[in-house]
User: Fold these one by one.
Assistant:
Number 1:
Amino acid sequence: MNMLAIDQGTTGSRAIVYDRRGCQLASAHREFAQYFPEPGWVEHDPEDIWQSVREAVQAVLQEVPAASIAGIGIANQRETTVLWDRYAGQPVHNAIVWQCLRTAPRCDELRSEAASLYARTGLPHNAFQHRQPHVGR
């Protein structure tokens, strides 16, 4: 039996199939567009992300039978955030990418709360953990 690894990264998605010994049997990579609506802002279209994953997986499954896959491991792009409409099953907006700086002013405001944030989340106060907009604020 084989393992399928899916690495959904910042600029593309990769699918790799490994055998029991860890030898690579098949690999595919599909890129997708990044959008910069304002200076310092970075977004992805969630449908583009999903399509890139599907295409990469379909490509490796043309080389390795799906029935031979015993498990799947998934890695994704850090703190990139997508807000979904639970009823429609559709994204509400483009994904806000972990590199986006649109919330930098709010991050600066949170510096005084760094110890409290660390106690609650286990994450240090830094740009990557606190660049995402806070829903409901």
Number 2:
Amino acid sequence: MKAAVLVVDDEKSVLKGLKMTLESRYKVFEASDGQEAIQVFRKENPDIVLLDIGLPDMSGLDVLHEIKTQNEETPVIMVTAVEEVKMVVEAVRKGAFNYLIKPVGSHEIQVSIKNALEARQLKEHIRTIQGPMVEKYKSHFICQNPAMLALLELSEKVTMSMETPTLIIGESGTGKGMLARKIHYSNSGSPGPFVLVNCSALSKELVESELFGYESGAFTGASPKGRKGRFETAGNGTLFLDEIGVMPLSVQVKLLNVLEDRYFYRVGGSKPIPVSARIIAATNTNLEEAVAKGEFRQDLFFRLNVVTLKLPPLRERLDEILPLSDHFMNSFNLRFKKKFETISPDARELLLSHHWPGNIRELRNTIERVVLMEDGNAILPDHLAFAVDRDAVQKKSGDLTLQDAENQYNRQVEKIIASVLEKADNNIQKAAGLLDIPVHKLRYLLKKSNER
């Protein structure tokens, strides 16, 4: 069955030309003013609308609003004779999928309609999986800590506005990315993709073109076809800027403009591209100190700091260490087909006494390694030796001297290494991989063990 397209324009010649262009592939309906467009839309419920902004009886923006009120899912492509940035941005804010500038070529129209219909199908697909994804990311936040409960309650309010930026602050491993995904999937109004940009992983020269894209010939080595940036890829979804504290100052200026104006230009481009994505930034550094040092723009910090979600480190959430450990144990039981049922009291004491500098990521990796490498129905203190620092071992040892505690620690490490080597058939490279340490470090530990 052909998709239905409603074409709205007050020029008869334009209507005739568009109908001739489209009728071989689509069922075409026509309207020459705003009121007629609304009536035809209500009656025929087309799959997509091509809508001229300048109509004789009412603004195309008002028609857009009425169409979106009737059916929010219908993509609307705005057509304008004049490229007026404010009007284009307003159209996108009201829900327009895209905009075209007259005169419009037949190929450009065909491509725009094809993209809009594919985007609609993608939205429908995302909605079918959105419920399970929301539950998935909610389940990763096992909250008993009052500060965390308050933070999650605040994060629910964040989903109410797509245009308000969110800043997530927290040490490495506290779950900043997980919280960003939870915000994204909790919002039924943003069915677009979740796009991650790790600012620390990009060179200073690449950050701008990666975020904003570039036009053909924008710089030496640029693709002849140009390239979309991450803002365009995010569409109506979420752009997550991780480690924003290392973003170059020159790019910070452009990001501030995007947050203020909701549009940008590709590198080497002159066409304004509206932004409809939610923007979430995250950092494990103190941005206020970076501002004081001149490493981060104060105006950008103030703009990002509208809503700040501060994730406390795991050492300040002691009441969540054991519930999280149990959750990870059960999760990895399923993955590795193991039968661990509990964590012994002494092992729980070790988990609580450890400082966890790597936060939840370190705890998760610790439990994963134990469940993978060990057997039995209980996680024991010996299983955790590789993850527990010397201070914790000394604390657990009571009246033992520092030397005694160190000897105990070394014996536990040797036991773990011996067990892993046995499982790896004495293959050092394989054993190092299972322990998640470099081969040279494992050789060093074996050498020290032999010397003792």
Number 3:
Amino acid sequence: MDRLTAARVFIEIAEQGSMTKAAEHLNMSTAMVSRYLQEIESWFGARLLHRTTRKVSLTDVGIATLPACKKMLLEVDNARNIALERSSKPKGVIRVASSGSFADSQLTPALVEFQKLHPEVEIILSVGHTAANLVEERVDLAIRITNTLDPMMIARPLAVCHSVLCASPEYLNKHGEPQCLEDLDKHYCITHVSGTHRHYRFIKQRGVIEVPVKGYFQSNETDAVCRAVLCGAGVGMLPTFYIGEHIKQGRLVPILTAEKPEALGIHAIYLSRKHQPLTLRLLVDFLVERFGGETAPWDLMFERQ
């Protein structure tokens, strides 16, 4: 039997926690999944999964070998992509990871446009609020919004993430508009989950300052913070790439516009420049051209105000 497929089956069972679910996801019969599992266990000479009538779980050997299996398949996929480069058209699979807010507002339309230019390139987009592990999750390209980069990864700048303080007209009509940073202490402030402290960060001549704020709603995702602000729960600091249309339509009102919230970098992250597939290079170049420049496209409306 095909040992690479057996490795894919093992990974899928481990991720799904069920042979039945793995079979459905792989479009195989449960019997075929079981045969592939037996094949890889025979190949490794060890039991990889505990099986019961209700669930499966990894053995110690399974836990130890799962990352290696994922890395092996990543290398095989990379080899396939390198081989496909020799054809006249870009082909292959690109696995991309991003936060939900950036994927929803900016990245997905860009990926669709890229795929139209290169119709034989398949794109798999994974969305989540935690940074993807490129090796374990077999991700080719991650879009990260941060000022703290992993030195082991290659990071190519795409754009700058600016933020603005804003609130809904309903909230401002009820509570009034803050006139200075000190006034934020009198308002409910929606924040991202970040440790035990609630604060907003601003750039001043002396450097970055943290302004303590209070409120009763936090989230680890921008879309939830934005939704709470839209519902009138309080003031929020939100990225311009996500809220442009809300401001344009009057659903959100910028406040304290003379203040300058700390900016973050938007980066394309990948493992190595060595043996980088043509398709991945083309995608990164495309994103740099689309999002780059002196001003990101989503910030143009703020410059015109």
Number 4:
Amino acid sequence: MKFFIVCPRGLEIPLAEELKEISERSEVKALGAWVIDPPPLNNTGGLGVAGPMSVALAINLHSRIASRCLLQMTHVAYRKEDDIYKAARSLSWEDWITPDQTMRVDLTAHRSPLTSLNFVTLRIKDAVCDRLREVKGARPNIDTELPDVRVQAHLTATHATVYLDTSGQSLFKRGWRDDKGAAPLKENLAAGILALTGWKPEQPLFDPMCGSGTFLIEAAYRGLGIPSGSIRAGLMNPQQDASQSAQDHNQAVKSVDKSEPSKFTRYRPTRVDLVGADQGFGFQRLKPFNTPDLKKQWDGLCIVAKKNIEQGLANANKLKMAACDINENMIAIVKNNWKRAGLPAQSGVLSNVRQIDALVAKSPFAEPGVMLFNPPYGERLEIKGGRDGSERVKGRGARDALPKNNNSPEFMEFLNQFGKHLKDNFQGWQVDVLTADMGLPGQVRMKESKRTPLFNGPLECRLFRFDMKKPDASLGNS
């Protein structure tokens, strides 16, 4: 079988390295060999893998960087829409899905000569439905919100590829996200950036502008060896304070009663499942997964993962991690997200999550480590004041968009001050900054040692690395 593993553009190399690590896990290796394509030279947003169906099981459970795991159904040359329809209709969809399931079709294209991609999408949908009506006497209904089955297609200038999505909802939806706080970046992008920094679990990690805590939680999962799909696989029970749980539950029931389209309309909940968790993974709704062999393989992977989770949580006190944010509301969200992620509140990490202005934050550990952050930009950040910690930055909780730059005198002064603060207080640290502002090195008045192009959705960004010089020991002895 052939798969295409989707990832944020710019993370193809760390994805390839991660897939190699997953394929070499003993419990995965026992299920069959993988052939992983080399990372592409350009940012294509993914790479190919060949192997057994267990590839999909392992990637959905373990990959921190992947967005989706797509199973290739066909790859054909085309000239017009009807060529794609015929190719899709010839596939044995009855071996994969049933007429009583719901489905949706999504299409992407690069340099396709066809004038209406919406029409192509409809033709692929018709092909699947016509095939099932012919073979089974009935066709599936369309559900664009939470379908049982997702069909993906991609067009180039000459070829069409049709896939079945084995992931369901995108894999960045881990199942712990508190929706009331806007996410500055997706979890799999954060995980890929962590891989690019080279951070090791035994090293200190510090985020001085932590927002909702995405870097912190992804680092904890990685450091403790917890699979990224643990909550969606049902291996961990996310925690949540009782008042918020009741509030969400009441809202869910209201949505069902009013028959409004929402993530809860498919059933009347007796408890609130988190985003992504109520749908598990896409492969669990494909017919081959109902075979004893694949279920046994999945159970085997989950048994090993459960043991690793238990061992990891037992070592949570060994994590050297800290974070701060100037907005006290974001600190509350970080701590709630940490608990929802199933991480122990008594680990000691949460005591290192504090409301502090980044301009006055000091090194939280005796030894240097990795500082990683995603600064807010534009009108979503109002800078007021200096470095004494009494002033506040407003709007820190709404970092869902990053304008390309901000040339206001106040913000330029903030960056200038922060660069000086890093030089004075974080000597020996490796500082990694994700930003859409290409001029940031000049604004903090430091020369980057490395810059990596990345994409936060459609927004082009850079991951800048700054190596803060250690103090010269000889000067202290003179």
